[in-house]
Write a structure and sequence with these properties.
This protein has five helices and seven strands, in the order αβαββββαβαβα. It has 137 residues and is α/β, with parallel strands linked by helices. The chain has one domain: 3-Layer(aba) Sandwich (Rossmann fold). The strands form two sheets. A five-stranded parallel sheet has the order 2-1-5-6-7, sandwiched between helices. β6, α4 and β7 form a beta-alpha-beta unit. The chain is globular, with a radius of gyration of 13 Å.
Length: 137
């Protein structure tokens, strides 16, 4: 039986954010910052920045040297299958597509790689609803 979105988030500590944004008004900027304040380690993925949220930015998931629990996707649905392939290649435990992002192909790739899969849900909303916090902050 698949784990629920809140179970996936509760079990995670490190989240790679594909489509992390420099703009705090965009979801790709505000959501990772909020997750970081809740104690999650954020690994930003963005080809056009060097540092986001006080963390080193990687150009691609394939460049991340650390273990990743969740790959959180803030990119259009059409990009999701390639992100899923990269998530599988690095051994991520889960692929999470943010609100309004859905992809049957990404789902197939993630599930065939043994990853948990969430689509069309916001990590920040789930964290807030279930009061998920990794630190006492």
């Amino acid at each position: 039986m698949p784990r629920s979105s809140h179970e996936i988030l509760e079990g995670a500590t490190t989240i790679a954010v594909v489509g992390a944004s420099r703009d705090p008004a965009k979801a790709g900027g505000s959501v990772p910052a909020g997750l970081q304040r809740r104690g999650f380690r954020i690994i930003p993925i963005n080809p056009f920045a060097d540092v986001l949220f006080g963390e080193r930015v990687y150009r691609s998931l394939l460049d991340v040297p650390d273990k990743v629990d969740i790959v959180d996707v803030f990119r259009p649905s059409g990009d999701a299958p390639e992100v899923a392939r990269q998530a599988a290649a690095i051994g991520a435990r889960a692929l999470w597509l943010q609100l309004d992002i859905r992809s049957e192909e990404a789902r197939r790739i993630a599930e065939s790689a043994g990853m948990d899969y969430v689509e069309d849900e916001c990590t920040a909303v789930v964290a807030s609803l279930y009061r998920i916090r990794k630190t006492a902050a």
